[in-house]
Amino acid sequence: MNKTNDKLGFFTFVFLWFGAAVSIAEILTGGLIAPLGFKIGLATILIGHLIGTTIFALGGIIGYREKITAMESTKIAFGSYGSYLFSVLNILQLIGWTAVMIKSSATSINLITKSLWNVDNFIVCALFIGLLTALWIAFGKVGIEKINNIAVMLLFILTLILGFVIFKDGSLLNKTVEGQMTIGGAIELSVVMPLSWLPLIADYTRFAKNEKSAGVGSFLGYFIGSAWMFIIGLASAIISQNSDPSAIMLAVNLGVTALLIVVLSTVTTTFMDVYSAGISFRNITKKLDEKTIGLIMAGIGTVLAIVVQMENYESFLYAIGSVFAPLFAVLITEYFIIKSDIKAKINMKINLGAFLVWVMGVVLYYVFIKFDLIIGATLPVMIITGVLYKISWEVVNKWKLVRE
């Protein structure tokens, strides 16, 4: 990524988070919303991303102001022991995303190679992506930013081509797709996707030149990139009954170009996952360097991509929301509303009261998922969790165990 001594500007963050959003996984997730139809699906995508990306940007502002990583910021509300637990949970999430990215890209690559050269071997494709990611990590960060920018621009241009192919079909607004999806469920998927990057954003915004770059730049980059990927996936699934962009790429004869774009976009995005997994791991212990940790994570993700079916992709996204929505509800309330002594809070061992509120928030999340509210689960759960934390703050604050 970027040299950590550099101060990153507004457009750097726009492009960084736009690049993180431009991926096959985002397109496939947009395709899950297709049963709602294009008009309603589009509205849910925009509403959900507005909610999720706003929360995402607030996490980035905390990182910029305090010059700390995302997992270090959780010490403000939960203490150092709390940050260790959330670092472990974040590492597990990032391993999961690594596996999802490798599996989805390997499926697309296998489709392309089968069509072009009659080569049909998913395992080889997954091992190829895993090995390429490992090589990317092993060779370090030299030149990665430029290659990432090229890959992102190529994939974005491709999505514009796909958009032209898809939207020129006048039947898009009237076609229906079989399947089950509610408005609340669609909004929740659109909220959870940016929320999944919330435990990573401060790893980068701590190096921002100013708060506008950290907050607004990150918001615009991710909102535009992710919403557009969702829309491409939604429209693809409605028109072709298949949200995998590789099928459409082959239909418009992009061939080898499609293969290169899928590979580059996957590796550059997956690199961000394993890079931040290394940062989270080093929040727990400094015994291993980030490169070694990244290689281990890439290996684990590759194995999981091969052996785990991952049919229930929505459950994975909801699990992320259940953990990190109430976590950051507590943190955002502590930081922006209560505004207690941050330096004193960071020196805590653990705040048991904050943990209790967080656990209540996790339980509430799954209750609200079953309620299937039209606004989704994340927003009401974060509001209720934040209010509970604010109301109980005087009592909760007495439960902290301060480092001697």
TrEMBL record:
It comes from the Bacteria. InterPro entries: CodB, Pur-cyt_permease, Thia_CytX. GO terms for cellular component: plasma membrane. One of its GO terms (molecular function) is cytosine transmembrane transporter activity. The keyword Membrane applies. It is found in: Membrane. Belongs to the purine-cytosine permease (2.A.39) family. This is Putative hydroxymethylpyrimidine transporter CytX. It comes from Clostridium cavendishii DSM 21758.
